[in-house]
User: Fold this.
Amino acid sequence: MEEKKIKIGLIGLGTVGSGVYKTLEAFKNIEVVKIAVKNKNKKRNIPGLDENIVTDNAYEVVNDPEIEIVCELVGGVEPAFDLIKTALKNGKHIVTANKELLAKRGEEIFNIAEENNRVILYEAAIAGGIPIIMPIKTILAGNKINKVEAILNGTTNYILTKMDMQGAQYQDVLKEAQELGYAETDPTGDVEGFDAAYKITTLATLAFKKRISFENVYREGITKVRAEDMKAANDLGYKIKLIASAKTDEKGRADVRVHPMLISKDSTLAHIDYVTNAVSLTGHPIGHITLSGPGAGEFPTASSVVGDILAIAAEIGTTDYLLPMMRCRHDNPAECINILDTENKYYLSLNAKNNKGVIGNIGSICAENNISVESIVQKNVSQNNTADITVITEICLEKDMQNAVKAFEKSEFINNVNSLIRVQV
Ligand SMILES: NC(=O)c1ccc[n+]([C@@H]2O[C@H](COP(=O)([O-])OP(=O)(O)OC[C@H]3O[C@@H](n4cnc5c(N)ncnc54)[C@H](OP(=O)(O)O)[C@@H]3O)[C@@H](O)[C@H]2O)c1
Assistant:
């Protein structure tokens, strides 16, 4: 008997959509019957593409009664949200790579999916080609995960790796990354940490089985990281990476954030360079596990999207309730901790007058703000008689550190607060 073909529709035929289309050609049980794009006249480098199935009206895909799975590979909140909502109401299952939509409107689309007994899979949305969603939902389901630390953005990891290797400044490496196509013309979404924040919102929601709202995720990008910070961090045994992290405290409150971080050169994440992504999970009974691999790109991302399509296709017609372990019902919201109430260790770089009493002044300001100093190093006395001073603190309250920074800015001994970067503990 001939195997039933599952008819699917693609919305988006850009980087990811093209990879998905080409990869699906090897699967005879899947037939792409309609593809929506923005510009039908754009030249596409896809051999064998039947232009008769290409439309510039995505509603033709979501309203097509033949289509059982819709792949949304456009990105952004609208029209993606309305297209997915319409498709779900029309009884279609969804595969999406859209991290922004999941972070901002995830709760709504998962509720609509449940109301219509349909599934939404999104392996590609977080860490591209790295399998992380399916493992958390299935083989790691027996764990209580209490900590996630991850490198989730290839562009920023590429920039920081280059700054580290070449001793180059951020702006110079950004320009080079843009020329090579690793960074977009408007890099804001990557370098200001939005992309990683979208991903950690969803990852933390899954890991803690409580919905994290995107507004509660603290976010700081890499634009203020200087070549001098890289060098100082290296001298102290650290690398600087943009780390997306999520952890829960003893009261079950979630601390979810994205910011540059000094991480020990010995840690696994310190060895994740260039555009590679990695996700480290800590929980019981697994202990500690790290998955790493390509976080983006045409084919790595297609690998995740196609895996999701095949998982749904394998179940269609076999059950009335597909993939129960892959469904999302995290309607209980997580209580989140404000960054000001968190405790952290800090790297602080100050430019100070090369006068007697400077170190004493720094020590006094720290002590007045309940901050203990782990180490203090003075370097680079310049011709104008100023020096860079690097301070590593012990663990202290963020609120106290912010007050100390205000005091340093007012101090007659300090010319400038160069940098404040949190240190992994
Ligand atoms: N690129 C990656 O490596 C990667 C990795 C993981 C996740 N993702 C996610 O995957 C999604 C797609 O990313 P991408 O890099 O493939 O983007 P892209 O290259 O910019 O492609 C977007 C596609 O969507 C089409 N499109 C835009 N507006 C549309 C509309 N209103 N109706 C129908 N089609 C429309 C575009 O049509 P035209 O071709 O006619 O312009 C294009 O084919 C995003 O959510 C992204 O965050 C990407």
